[in-house]
Amino acid sequence: MSKSQPRAAIIGAGVCGLNCARHLNQHGWDVDVYDKGRGIGGRLAVKRIDGLGSVDLGAQFMTALTPEFISLLSDEEKQGRVRPWGARIAYIHSKAHEQASSQIRWIGTPGMNAWLESVWPRTQIKFNQQIDKVTRGSDGRWILGGTTTAPYDCVILAMPPKQAADLARDTPLEEALRAVPMTPCWAALALFDQPLSVDFDAAFIRIGGLDWIAANHTKPGRTPHPAAWTLHAGADLSNELLEKTTEQVAPRLLSALAEALGTKLPNGHIPLTHRWRYAAPTAAQPTGVLWNPDLGIGAGGDWAVGGRVEGAFTAGRLLAEAVVAPR
Ligand SMILES: Cc1cc2nc3c(=O)[nH]c(=O)nc-3n(C[C@H](O)[C@H](O)[C@H](O)COP(=O)(O)OP(=O)(O)OC[C@H]3O[C@@H](n4cnc5c(N)ncnc54)[C@H](O)[C@@H]3O)c2cc1C
Q1: Which residues line ligand 1 (CB under 6 A)?
Q2: Whole-angstrom distance, CA of residue 3 vs CA of residue 221
Q3: Distance (Å) from CA 254 to ligand 1 centroid
Q4: Is the whole model's pTM more than 0.90, yes or no?
Q5: Which CATH code is given to the segment(s) 7-44+115-179+283-324?
Q6: Does the structure show a pLDDT above 60 at 163?
Q7: Helices in the chain by DSSP H: which ranges?
Q8: CATH 3.90.660.10 residue window(s) in the chain
């Protein structure tokens, strides 16, 4: 490791990567964050749709159990960047509707990713930079393919495990990363010409192939359209439709919704879809974050610590702690 300020490259500006950047920076590291996308937050994606405002097609809400995340969300609530969502949430299975468990469900405002600005500023992220290769030079420092920046003392792969495995090729991390299972999710925005006649704002669904639906207008700061619903297909249906086109997927999602609700839907269409190829980790036993101190390469994400936004946040801190731990 160089004697001057140590330098880290973090690939992935999702929750894990940005929290890792923050903690490393607090430990005196010079950090560069890269992302292939144009926006901050990865799977906390916010989509804007003409004339309608923003809708959530990725993460729907956040829950907080750890002191670090509870404290951050409470600060962010004071700043207006998250708000509790007092939604009526149903659990639909076998034609029965039940009330889902009550817990605080936090919504980022105006978008799910708004609070991440205080974790790591957007202005310090190198967007539109797809890193397709990381190589270790003869001095043991890392060079990122496609960039001209000076070498790094360590590289952190903060992304879904399959994508991280491709970058960690031929390192001791690769095998463990390839073994982590993730399921896909087809997500869509459905617009109807009149409100659905349901007595809930969102629902976990276990029949008909969908997994989750939510009325966007019931969330703070989202489209006011009274009949704009986010639909998430479950893992089985998403796998079945994985390589299909939007035109093929949209009618399947609408018929799955009708089946779940057990009713004929008002006229509707789907103007927006997104296929999350790596949506959610499914391993019963998460691996924990991966860090190889000899090579200076690490990997983490929601998959390392049990899933969800909070898991990704914790993984970012754990990665940074692993990097700075005395050897
Ligand atoms: C449909 C859906 C619904 C969800 N609902 C919820 C929910 O309600 N509550 C909840 O807590 N969680 C939910 N989640 C999960 C939550 O979104 C994730 O757990 C969390 O956002 C993962 O963060 P991360 O930093 O680990 O990874 P990501 O958010 O995936 O970030 C990885 C980043 O790496 C970038 N990247 C990847 N490869 C490269 C490369 N080669 N070069 C440069 N950049 C690269 C990507 O562009 C991305 O920005 C949901 C996820 C999905 C998909």
Answers
A1: 11-17, 34-37, 42-44, 58-62, 130-131, 158-160, 163, 185, 187, 232, 276, 279-280, 301-302, 307-309, 312
A2: 47
A3: 25
A4: yes
A5: 3.50.50.60
A6: yes
A7: 15-26, 67-78, 161-167, 174-178, 235-240, 246-261, 308-324
A8: 46-107+182-281
Cis before 110 (ω within 30): yes
Closest listed residue to residue 254, CA positions, set 275, 284, 233? 233
Answer for the pair 200, 294: CB distance below 8 angstroms, yes or no.
Answer: no
pLDDT digits (tens, 9 = 90+) for 190-246: 999 999 999 999 999 999 999 999 999 999 888 888 999 999 999 999 999 999 999
Instruction: State whether CATH 3.30.1330.10 applies to domain 46-107+182-281.
Output: no
Pocket test of ligand 1: the residue of 89, 134, 302 to mutate, having most ligand atoms within 8 Å of its CB, is: 302
More confident residue, 225 or 169: 169
